[in-house]
């Protein structure tokens, strides 16, 4: 009797891998992953792409924006000829440096390459004969982002960006256009958590048209972000490698792409940046 109990206990002991609890798919490269997702979502009219923004400290050799421009845009161009970007040109009513842009830069710590990456994206869309649409901002709207002390009201700013992304995309869709939208991985949420649902244009737009959400996660950028440690897909970073793309499906039409890690960051190094698996 005792021997039988010992055998049962020994058989019950094994290596627990929490990653196995997270359903995901693996592809050899970004193009293969995106093609598979597009095949699953043929009715999409809006391609809502969101990035996790890099900072000075987290900047990788290739930013999410540059990877989107070089690896994903050529595939989406076959589906849509209009690109809406989460950016606006400096308001003509501002003389000298824009205080709003300066405060945004101070808070987000965007790397210097962001502007050149954005210019590269616009250049690629021009080569593909696509139309690029930035967000129009009036002088009144520009000044309304500042409180009486001259500080940016970031919640008001996020709400305004959400509304403008929605309006610009919806207008193009109503004109019969299929649209690609590129911005942060907040405004494109199809399944936003309360109370962030007011900050998602995709959540609202999906009531009228089929929307495909793609979140781009560069391992070197997202690994240290504590705000993401509780995301179901985050533990998959331990499997990130230069020769693979991991795809996690949040729900119908919503995907997270964990893009290839850079050669200098292997599985073990990325894993060291992740929190303990609970």
């Amino acid at each position: 009797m005792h021997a039988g109990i010992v055998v049962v206990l020994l058989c019950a002991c094994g290596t627990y891998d929490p990653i196995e609890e997270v359903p995901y798919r693996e592809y050899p490269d970004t193009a293969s992953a995106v093609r598979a997702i597009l095949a699953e979502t043929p009715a999409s009219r809006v391609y809502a792409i969101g990035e996790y923004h890099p900072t000075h400290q987290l900047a990788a050799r290739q930013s999410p924006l540059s990877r989107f421009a070089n690896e994903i845009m050529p595939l989406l161009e076959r589906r849509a000829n209009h690109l809406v970007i989460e950016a606006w040109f400096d308001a003509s009513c501002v003389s000298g440096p824009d205080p709003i842009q300066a405060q945004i830069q101070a808070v987000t710590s965007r790397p210097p390459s962001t502007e050149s990456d954005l210019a590269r994206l616009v250049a690629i869309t021009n080569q593909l004969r696509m139309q690029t649409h930035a967000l129009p901002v009036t002088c009144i709207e520009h000044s309304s982002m500042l409180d009486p002390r001259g500080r940016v009201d970031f919640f008001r700013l996020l709400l305004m960006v959400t509304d403008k992304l929605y309006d610009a995309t919806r207008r193009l869709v109503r004109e019969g256009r299929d649209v690609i939208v590129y911005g942060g991985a907040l405004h494109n949420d199809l399944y936003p958590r309360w109370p962030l649902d007011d900050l998602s244009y995709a959540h609202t737009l999906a009531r009228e048209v089929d929307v495909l959400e793609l979140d781009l996660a560069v391992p070197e950028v997202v690994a240290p972000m504590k705000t993401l440690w509780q995301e179901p897909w985050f533990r998959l970073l331990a499997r990130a490698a230069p020769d693979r793309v991991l795809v996690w499906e949040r729900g119908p039409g919503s995907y997270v792409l964990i893009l290839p890690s850079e050669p200098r960051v292997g599985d073990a190094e990325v894993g060291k940046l992740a929190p303990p698996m609970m």
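DSSP finds ten helices and eight strands in the chain. The radius of gyration is 21 Å.
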